[in-house]
Amino acid sequence: FGEEKIMAFKDNFRGDSAYTQIMTKIFNIFWLSILWLLCCIPVITIGASTIALYYVMLKLVKDEETTVTREFFHSFKQNFLQSLPVTVIVLVVVVVLVADFHILGAAGRAQGASFMYGFCIVLGIICAAVFSYVFPLLAKFENTVKKTFENGARLAASHIGQTLVITVVNLFPVLWFLISPQTFSAIFWIWVFVGGGVQAFVNSLFLVKIFDRLAEA
């Protein structure tokens, strides 16, 4: 009985065991999260870093052979120039929306402020939904910037259920902060280092199925 337990314990650490595969995947998700964070620091590289994150994550979800670090930086370099206009567009939209929320919040109960505040919330959610597809699309398919945004909008509109989940996942830190700033601040640094990878992994579970159908069409 003792030997059986020892053998079972050893089997858990074999390279092809389910335990080893699960732990390897968890490590890769966390490592990708750190790579993504570090490469986002210059801000203008957020797009290239996010594309690289999804380039590798989509492979991990499908259990394809991949060398995480090498393929991350390969994608980062390959898509850097293409990602720049996309990054600028996304950053401008985010800055404008944040500025609008700040101005409308300061306006308080001024006439029309509540309507504009609601309009900005709806617009922000729509933009978040479209942006949720843009970077993964660039990681998977070659296309122009204009066409990528158009395809992102089409996918967001034609896959409402998946879009809702993906958008909530991407906005989760913001929603958590708004609902409970105290609890969010307690885990802020943990989320900073692992949140990006976890979000991309959850999103990729839905995206691989959507992209596979696109590739077959």
Describe the protein in words.
By secondary structure, the chain is an all-alpha fold. It is 86% helix and 0% strand. Helix 3 packs across helix 4 and helix 5 crosses helix 6. 25% of the residues are buried.
Overall mean confidence score, pLDDT: 88
Percent in helix: over 70%
How large a portion of the residues is in β-strands, by DSSP E? under 5%
Distance between the termini: 55 Å
Shape: globular
What composes the largest sheet?
A: none
List low-confidence stretches.
none
- The gyration radius over C-alpha positions equals 20 Å
Question: What is the string of SSEs from the N terminus onward?
Answer: HHHHHHHHH
Q: What is the total tally of β strands?
A: 0
Structural class: mainly alpha
Number of helices: 9
Topology diagram in text:
Elements: H1 2-11, H2 18-40, H3 46-61, H4 68-107, H5 113-140, H6 145-158, H7 160-179, H8 181-186, H9 188-216
Please outline what is shown here.
The chain is mostly helical.
Key traits:
217 residues, 86% helix, mainly alpha
